[in-house]
Every structure is written in structure tokens, then in C-alpha cells.
Amino acid sequence: MTSGKRNLLIAVIVILVVAGSLYSFFKGTYNQFVTLDEAVKSSWAQVENQLQRRYDLIPNLVETVKGYAKQEKDVLVEVTNARARVGGATTVPDKISANNELSGALSRLLVVVERYPDLKSNQNFLRLQDELAGTENRISVERRRYNEAVQTYNVAIRSFPANLLAGLYGFGKAAFFEAPAAAKGAPQVKF
Fold first, then answer.
1. What integer pLDDT is reported at residue 27 of this predicted model?
2. SS3 letters across the chain
3. Which one has a higher pLDDT value, 124 or 20?
């Protein structure tokens, strides 16, 4: 074999190795993004399952409270309106915002309940309150899992050199499920 043919063969081999390495890198990075994106979507689906469970409990809770607390119409309307906004939300950020609003309205409803001892001893109300508390705990767990999946995904698409490919492939930053601003401050206790 002449040195020219040998040099050409070496150049072709080097080009094939580099091309194969680049192909593997691009394919591996893309597949990692897809896997992480699907993990975020799956985690969000679990959050939505629990939010739907809470959404379904609210009419029963409102009806039970309505019978005892007729003069608390404003709070009941607020819960009903917040629930309607949850039902109408279509994007993840809108759903997060609407659910944060619903959480606040439910908290205010439970404060109102404290004023009605007969309601607090009603078995149907107690069962609904227990179901709601359990659902809120499950929402909290699924929210944490969702935020962990979002963090892993966001780190992957923002890390160099993968960040260069993330934009090329169309993978954007995912939104965290954050607590509303009102929940971040310390509550005021008045005696």
C-alpha cells in the first residue's frame, strides 16, 4: 500500500470515527432530553390526578358547609369560582396559578368552619375533611416529584454543551409548581 493510499485510509477512518462520535453524542443527548421531558410530563400527570381528586371533592364539601353556614356565602362563592378557574385552565402555568388560588380559597373555607361546632361534628363533613387532607398530602408529594423532574430536566437542557442542542431540538425550560406569594410569608397570628 502506498503512503498516499494509507494516508487517505487513515483520514477516512478518522472522519468516520469523528462522524460516528458526533452522531452518538447528538442522538444520546436528544434521547436524554426526550426521556427527561417525558418524566416531567408523567410527573405533571400525577399532580393533575391528585388535583382532579381535590376538584371532585369540593362540590360535596361546599354543599355540606352550605347547609350550616348560610351567612358565609362569600367564602362559598370564592371556592366555587376558584374551582371553575381550575376547570378552565389549559396551560401548566395557568393550572398552577388556578390551583394555588383554589388552595387559598379552601384554607379560608376551613377557617370559616371553625365558627360552626355543629358542622365540625358532622360525620359527612369530617369524612370529606379527612379525604381533603389526604388529597392535599398526595398533592404535596406529587408536586415535589414534579419539581424534582423539572429540576433534572432544566439542568440537562441548560448544561454545556447540551444546552446548544436543546435550543436546536426545541426543548425549552419547564415551569416549577411554586407556592403562591402569599404562602411564602409568615402568617400573622392575632389574639
1. 92
2. CCHHHHHHHHHHHHHHHHHHHHHHHHHHHHHHHHHHHHHHHHHHHHHHHHHHHHHHHHHHHHHHHHHHCHHHHHHHHHHHHHHHHHHHCCCHHHHHHHHHHHHHHHHHHHHHHCCCHHHHCCHHHHHHHHHHHHHHHHHHHHHHHHHHHHHHHHHHHHCCCHHHHHHHHCCCCCCCCCCCHHHHCCCCCCC
3. 20
**pTM of this structure:** 0.75
Domain spanning 3-172: which CATH class is it, in words?
mainly alpha
Averaged over 89-98, what is the pLDDT? 89
Average confidence (pLDDT) over 119-144: 87
Q: Could you read off the pLDDT of 20-49 as tens digits, one per residue?
A: 999 999 999 999 999 999 999 999 999 999
Instruction: Count other C-beta atoms under 10 Å from residue 101's C-beta.
Output: 19
Alpha-carbon dihedral sign for residues 86, 157, 29, 143: negative
Closest CA to 169 of 153, 184, 189: 153
The count of C-alpha atoms lying within 13 angstroms of the C-alpha of 113, restricted to the half-sphere facing its C-beta, is 21
8 Å CB contact between 75 and 105 = yes
Residue 98: pLDDT above 70? Answer: yes
Residue with cell 400527570: 45
